From TrEMBL:
One Pfam family cited in the UniProt record for this chain: HATPase_c_3
Organism listed in the record: Streptomyces gelaticus
Keyword Chaperone in record: yes
HAMAP family: HSP90
Record protein name field: Chaperone protein HtpG
Length: 640
């Protein structure tokens, strides 16, 4: 068979260069990566054999063998799993399909030489390529189960690799590393030493559910040594961590399992265990990662919970087990009473699975809640990484809405750096304040400068500043926390203060109302094309006017979002509020009373300008900007 030579894709080449120059301080992990791939290959074969009776494959003795040879300085990791076809080898081993990897490489380049670079590297698993940390040549011989021919792949990691079709190869994959000469005499990196192999497998791969065996090397040079029995020694306990009692398992062991499942090399932020007994028995071992993956908000993001049935791996990315807003949770759920043949469709409809889903979601939320009170710093990390995705649950998970609000944090006028929880907000509420106030907007600065905030600032009433796009949506449902409704400061009437203050304000308003009744009626009529009402405001202290939405109306930002999604929704008219303390407003009132209808055009234009100024102040877009400019220039000219 001819040997073909291929070039590595650019990203793959960069990654390999990094491996060759050993960017990881701990080289031992290459073995963990190879064993992890081998274990996945065995899982895949067992599943495929289960689903396809006609598959011509031997599944009677699935295992992983590690062989070393001191003479040739080689180490081989061999599995009799699913294997790869010729095309799969080219595709899976020669390129990096994962878009997250490309992004990682870019970030790494930018951070080169800084301490940030080390942090980045630590978070990133590179699987098979990590072999090049310890090897100057790697050969992979593989045959896909059910196929007759095999494929041999060889590379020294320097830009090209060769591929050759071979007639006879055992089912599965064998990866052979020719170890770098400098490592062999170095006790720490002596990867042909049984002692070293035993130690690494025990440390990183003990939980692997397949036997990981070491095949003893033939004794050096001794005649006839090959005839001596060479019984392989099983190195791992194969005990599923979730089935062992809690105090038997160390944090390190949990973390290794996490790495195996998540391909994330940094330790998880939190480990969660759940044991359900009774009619539907299951065990769950879940992890909250310590950082959000790059593609969390991309379409097709794979959720990280694996389903096992009685210790047998069934599927990755089991969406029936976790709601979408908890898609960052990784882990394993092992159910006792499901069929090994269970499909995704069946899972979606299964009542027991739905109950399990609910219980797992609640468990994750309660864990975050505990973290919030016991370990505020850890919680802060959680919120920074996953807050935005968690808030999606406020829209979709009605049952847990209050629980999600309870573990959420928000930027606040109370503190310019630290976000607040709703519990803390409620504790700071003023006498007579019934609602939790918020304002949504593009940025903290835009919100803080909005005219709607004036009276709140003057009275020292705290306002939450919501700037995530998702915030516009969930607040529409007007959720409550601890019996207090969340209210926008840009909607409806504002009333806060003690009973006495409220009474006082009402009396004052009544007096003002009579004084301004003429102007308000006239303006409401004149501006009826744009607003539904003109009224006096109790939320302004310095601005002449602002525009607010009616209590239950959809905000302009949300209207825009709906339109961007292609929905045809009618323009909702809002309310123009005037500040009677402002001399422009009181002057307009006087002018209207004196000249009334006689000076129609001039007063009308001023009324329009007042509206447009209010719109600009909240960052809105004018309906007719050129008319605004003309009217404004005209008035400025008169001041010269
Ligand atoms: P990862 O395991 O993170 O996907 P790797 O570079 O380690 O990345 O492997 C790339 C792909 O190559 C794997 O996803 C798998 O499909 C395939 N692969 C690697 N090792 C084996 C193996 N021993 N048997 C079968 N397929 C394998």
């Amino acid at each position: 068979m001819p040997t073909e030579t291929f070039e590595f894709q650019v990203e793959a080449r960069q990654l390999l260069q990094m491996m060759i120059h050993s960017i990881y301080s701990n080289k031992d992990v290459f073995l963990r990566e190879l064993v992890s791939n081998a274990s996945d290959a065995l899982d895949k074969l067992r599943l495929e054999a289960l689903r396809d009776d006609s598959l011509d494959a031997d599944v009677s003795d699935l295992h992983i063998d590690i062989e070393t040879d001191r003479q040739t300085r080689t180490l081989t990791v061999r599995d009799n799993g699913i294997g790869m076809s010729h095309d799969e080898v080219v595709q899976l081993i020669g390129t990096i399909a994962n878009s997250g990897t490309a992004k990682f490489l870019r970030e790494l380049k930018e951070a080169e030489g800084t301490t940030a670079a080390e942090g980045l590297i630590g978070q990133f698993g590179v699987g098979f390529y990590s072999s090049f940390m310890v090897a100057d040549e790697v050969t992979l011989l593989t045959r896909r189960a059910g196929e007759s021919q095999g494929t041999r792949w060889t590379s020294s990691g320097e830009g090209t690799y060769t591929i050759e079709t071979v007639d006879s190869a055992p089912q599965g994959t064998a990866v052979t590393l020719r170890l770098k000469p400098e490592d062999v005499d170095d006790q720490l990196h002596d990867y042909v030493s049984p002692w070293k192999i035993r130690e690494i497998v025990k440390r990183y791969s003990d939980f692997i559910t397949w036997p990981v065996r070491m095949v003893p090397e033939a004794a050096d040079g001794a005649e006839g040594a090959d005839d001596a029995p060479r019984e392989p020694e099983t190195l791992n306990s194969m005990k599923a961590l979730w089935a062992r009692s809690r105090d038997e398992v160390t944090d390190d062991e949990y973390h290794e399992l996490y790495k195996h499942i998540s391909h994330d090399w940094s330790a998880p932020l939190e480990t969660i265990r759940l044991q359900a007994e009774g009619t539907f028995e299951y065990q769950a071992l879940l992890f909250i990662p310590s950082h959000a993956p790059q593609d969390l908000f991309m379409q097709g993001y794979q959720r990280g919970v694996q389903l096992y049935v009685k210790r047998v791996f069934i599927m990755d990315d089991c969406e029936a087990l976790m709601p979408p807003y908890l898609r960052f949770v990784k882990g394993v759920v092992d159910a006792q009473d499901l069929s090994l043949n269970v499909s995704r469709e069946i899972l979606q409809q299964d009542r027991q699975i739905q109950l399990m889903h609910r219980r797992l979601a609640k468990k994750v939320l309660s864990t975050v809640k505990d973290m919030m009170s016991a370990e505020p710093e850890r919680y802060a990390t959680f919120w920074r990484e996953f807050g935005r995705v968690l808030k999606e649950g406020l829209l979709s998970d009605f049952e847990n809405r209050e629980a999600i609000l309870g573990v959420s944090s928000f930027a606040t006028t109370h503190d310019k750096d630290e976000p607040t929880t709703l519990r803390q907000y409620v504790e700071r509420m003023k006498d007579g304040q019934e609602h939790i106030f918020y304002l949504t907007g593009e940025s903290r600065q835009a919100i803080e400068n909005s005219p709607h905030m004036e009276a709140f600032r003057a009275k020292g009433v705290e306002v939450l500043l919501l700037t995530d796009p998702v915030d516009e949506v969930w607040v529409e449902a007007e959720p409550a926390f601890d019996g207090k409704q969340l209210r926008s400061v840009a909607k409806g009437e504002v009333d806060f203060g003690t009973e006495e203050e409220k009474k006082e304000a009402a009396t004052e308003r009544e007096g003002r109302q009579q004084e301004y009744a003429g102007l308000l009626g006239w303006m409401t009529e004149r501006l009826s094309g744009t607003v539904k009402e003109v009224r006096l405001s109790s939320r302004l202290t310095v601005s002449p006017a602002c525009i607010v939405s009616d209590t239950h109306d959809v905000t302009p930002a949300l209207q825009n979002m709906y339109r961007a999604m292609g929905q045809d929704i009618p323009q909702v008219k809002r309310i123009l509020e005037l500040n009677p303390e402002h001399s422009l407003v009181s002057g307009l009132n006087r002018a209207h009373a004196e000249r009334g209808e006689e000076d129609g055009a001039g007063l009308q234009e001023t009324a329009e300008l007042l509206h447009d100024l209010a719109l600009l102040a909240e960052g809105g877009e004018l309906g007719d900007p050129s008319r605004f400019v003309r009217l404004m220039a005209d008035r400025l000219e008169r001041t010269l």
